[in-house]
Specification:
four-stranded antiparallel β-sheet; AcylCo_DH-like_C; Acyl-CoA dehydrogenase family protein; 10 strands; AcylCoA_DH/oxidase_NM_dom_sf; flavoprotein
């Protein structure tokens, strides 16, 4: 039951048709096995890259697709509905390219952005640390200036694509001036002194590699500083505004997949001589699930359209991340209920969807942090 979409152009309609074809034929058939074996699908990201999906919202002059966020996010939703780990990875890659694209010099963008968007490279976003998650200004990884280089030491935590990324957008401390002492770097994925710890053993998204990233005297050229020294937190928070819309779209894709599976099962499962979808108790539950998916989609599209028009969208991004991820948690839980005992087994995908939904309420700012952002925006 593909989601009905109101897209702005014929080009966008053709793009979404291509994305659905890739999701149906190349992603969905592999998802369960890769997740079961905790296998990272690097080849699928190369496929997305060759199809032009890794750079959809970025300018054509650098190899991007020049698509509005409204279109990019709906493409992302389709990917996530087929395979959540790949959807989250796509969102992280796009966010990891943001700092360079939005704050880099013309020379930096010309040098590195085309490769980042072309499809062969995969990005990671290195902000969080074990003691600096919601409190990003407390990070301690340090980049000390040494002539024409910076020497980086510290450990990043919960990094998607750690150890497999080809580049990282790295936030590191260049002075002790609190949040104003953080700077942004476009760091290579492989450098002397840069290692990744063993992958985390996670509840869900087991096909997505998450690990600590360790910097031991890693030398970065001063030309890899993005923006000025001290701009890092500003760049990080700006990237997160857009990234939260990406996670919101992924959440809706997951919820849509759970709804589709529940409806399909309810139509074919019979009890007392009738399909269970004919019983009002199940019919109303499915109706509530559909309403949650449709309303959640509207929240992320509202944020995307404001972003596309150059309007402030921080509050809308926080609302979307909050509403969409809470909806995904509820819809996937209800999908397990619709399937009953079958839903609790690994013979059906809804138990995996439910496990995957939980982390959406946590990363890229917990939903408690989203409430804090919304409240602060209301006070202004």
């Amino acid at each position: 039951m593909p989601a009905e979409r109101l897209l702005p152009t014929t080009e966008a309609e053709d793009l979404l048709a291509l994305v659905r074809e890739i999701a149906r034929d190349e992603l969905a058939p592999c998802a369960a096995e890769h997740e079961e074996r905790e296998r990272f699908p690097r080849d699928k990201f190369r496929l997305l890259g060759k199809s032009g999906l890794l750079g959809l919202p970025y300018p054509e002059e650098f190899g991007g697709g020049a698509q509005p966020y409204e279109v990019y996010l709906q493409a992302l939703e389709e990917v996530a509905s087929a395979w959540m780990s790949v959807g989250v990875g796509l969102s992280v890659h796009v966010m990891s390219s943001y700092g360079l694209a939005a704050f880099g010099t013309d020379e930096q963008k010309a040098r590195w952005l085309p490769d980042a968007l072309a499809g062969d490279l995969l990005g990671g976003y290195a902000l969080s640390e074990s003691h600096a998650g919601s409190d990003a200004a407390a990070l301690s990884t340090r980049a000390a200036r040494d002539g024409d280089e910076y020497v980086v030491n510290g450990t990043k935590a919960w990094i998607t694509h750690a150890g497999v990324a080809d580049f990282y957008t790295l936030m590191a401390r260049t002075s002790d001036d609190g949040g104003r002492g953080i700077s942004c770097f476009f760091a290579p994925g492989r450098a002397d002194g840069l290692t990744a710890a063993s992958p985390e053993r996670k509840m869900g998204l087991t096909g997505s590699t998450t690990a600590q990233l360790v910097f031991e005297d890693v030398r970065l050229g001063a030309d890899r500083l993005v923006g000025a020294e001290g701009d890092g937190l500003k760049i990080a928070l700006s990237a997160l505004d857009s990234g939260r819309l990406g996670i919101a779209a992924c959440a809706v894709g997951l919820a849509q997949a759970a709804l589709d599976e529940a409806v399909s099962y309810a139509k074919t499962r019979t009890q007392f001589g009738r399909s269970i979808i004919d019983f009002q108790g199940l019919e109303f539950l499915l109706a509530d699930m559909a309403a949650a998916v449709d309303s959640a989609r509207a929240t992320y599209l509202d944020g995307a359209r404001r972003r596309d028009r150059g309007l402030p969208f921080r509050r809308q991004a926080a609302v979307a991340k909050l509403v969409c991820t809470d909806a995904a948690m509820k819809v996937t839980t209800d999908a397990v209920q619709v399937l009953g005992g079958a839903g609790y087994t690994r013979d059906f995908p809804v138990e995996r969807y439910m496990r995957e939904a939980k982390v959406l309420q946590i990363f890229e700012g917990t939903n408690q942090i989203q409430r804090l952002v919304i409240g602060r925006e209301l006070r202004r």
